[in-house]
Specification:
Elements: H1 4-20, E1 30-31, E2 37-41, E3 47-51, H2 56-62, E4 66-71, H3 100-114, H4 129-138, E5 140-145, H5 157-160
Parallel strand pairs: 4-5
Antiparallel strand pairs: 1-5, 2-3
Helix pairs in contact: 3-4
Length: 162
């Protein structure tokens, strides 16, 4: 059974070791938050919008379909942040996903959730963001990054094979 608290324990330990070893903060990841939207100021001074925890634990634990996105890189290599919070949509306040990868996640989620064994969902590129977000908010979705912190794009083999 998935819980944020168990996931956070692992990530907090990882971050503590990362900072102790001089590698800096990590980007937290896991099951995507489905709660209210909250504005915040990032380390770079940019105002951003993030989702708060909501009913995602229940959705994840009770879903017949679960989607895991595995990404290679951080969302923002100069500003690691919690990738569980990024899918915010509030058209009345001009808030919607603009990142190409996030939009792709919305389309893939919609395709997986709305397709059946007999019929796949078709897209024409003009799908309503509201409809895509409605599907997202009901779906069990998680995202993890293979790379947890900013830095070089090539691994140091001496660190991998000591």
């Amino acid at each position: 059974m998935y819980t944020h608290s168990e996931n956070d324990k692992v990530l907090e330990c990882w971050q503590e070791l990362s900072v102790k070893n001089g590698d800096g903060k990590i980007e937290f990841d896991g099951v995507a938050y489905k709660g209210d939207i909250h504005p915040f100021t990032g380390d770079d001074g940019k105002i951003c919008n993030e989702r708060q925890p909501g009913n995602e634990e229940s959705i994840w634990n009770n879903s017949d379909k679960r989607i895991l996105f595995v990404a290679k890189e951080l969302n923002d290599p100069d500003n690691p942040y919690d990738s569980r919070v990024v899918m915010a949509y509030d058209p009345d306040n001009g808030i919607e996903p603009t990142d190409r990868f996030l939009k792709s996640m919305l389309y893939i989620t919609n395709g997986v959730m709305e397709s059946t064994a007999g019929k796949a969902v078709e897209f024409n590129g003009e799908e309503s963001m509201g409809n895509l977000m409605d599907t997202w908010d009901k779906a069990a979705v998680a995202k993890i990054n293979v790379k947890k912190q900013p830095g070089k794009s090539v691994a140091d083999m001496a660190e991998i094979n000591p």
